[in-house]
Write a structure and sequence with these properties.
48% helix, 130 residues, single chain, 12% strand, four-stranded mixed beta sheet, globular, alpha+beta
Length: 130
Amino acid sequence: MKDDTHGPVLVYDGGCPFCSHFAELSELRGGIAGLIIRDGRADHALRQSLAQRGCHLRDGAVVIDGDQLLHGSEAIHWMAQRLQPSSPLLQLLIPLFGQNQRAGALYPFLLVARRAALALRGLPVDPDSR
């Protein structure tokens, strides 16, 4: 899964409007050099590869940084520590998720919002459940 030719990769759930907005803002205005975003819902092979390593998209976003995989709150914490945002939303998220304990405590609320957004769109939480 390591790719030395690119920077870090954020794998997000493209079916979730909140996830998509965060990923796009992070890529365009987050200031993380070389950040690549990948829609894990649309990329079955990537999703399967991550699942084989214990990172299921249904449980949250994934950051691939070299050989390192960060999943869920760890992924969002990693992002928050590196963001240099010009967007008000990203400026709000940095203090909320910049500390590991706080990120772990708040991340379940993001998952609830994601589940609600997916339900409103008629999409399953787990893209592999269909």
